[in-house]
Design goal:
By secondary structure, the chain is of the alpha+beta class. 31% of the residues lie in helices and 20% in strands. Helix 1 runs antiparallel to helix 4.
Amino acid sequence: MNIVFREVDPFNCWIWIKFFEIPTEAEKNYLDGVFDSWYVLGRLGGFNSENLQTHEEGSDLSWMSYDNEQKESALPALMHNLGVMEYQNLWSRSWVDFGTSDSLSIDILINALNEISNNYVKIDELIIGGENSDWSIEEHEDLVFKN
């Protein structure tokens, strides 16, 4: 799976997926579930790099001293909105408003889609941001901050 970044507006970003073959309905349902799950985690503040205590601790978490004050003092990092996944031939796309969620959310999505591509639905290319010459975009109805 090739990963490409184009111009990324965190409040108005399209995510494009190009497949090797047109996905089946079952494969579409699988991808829809991944994006829905990813959004729920983001909406609940899961992509907040201000509080990555276990990650920073390392591999041995036994008897780790978790700092609850640090957890409570971290500023919220909430994903604002995700559009419905759309499909057209070899392409799919979804619009996202990352809100204040950290770019950690993109890494997590890339990791999940890479695993899907390796084992379930062959993805040729993942494009974060920008426009696609094969499929024109319009201003998304949920866009809050307009240029």
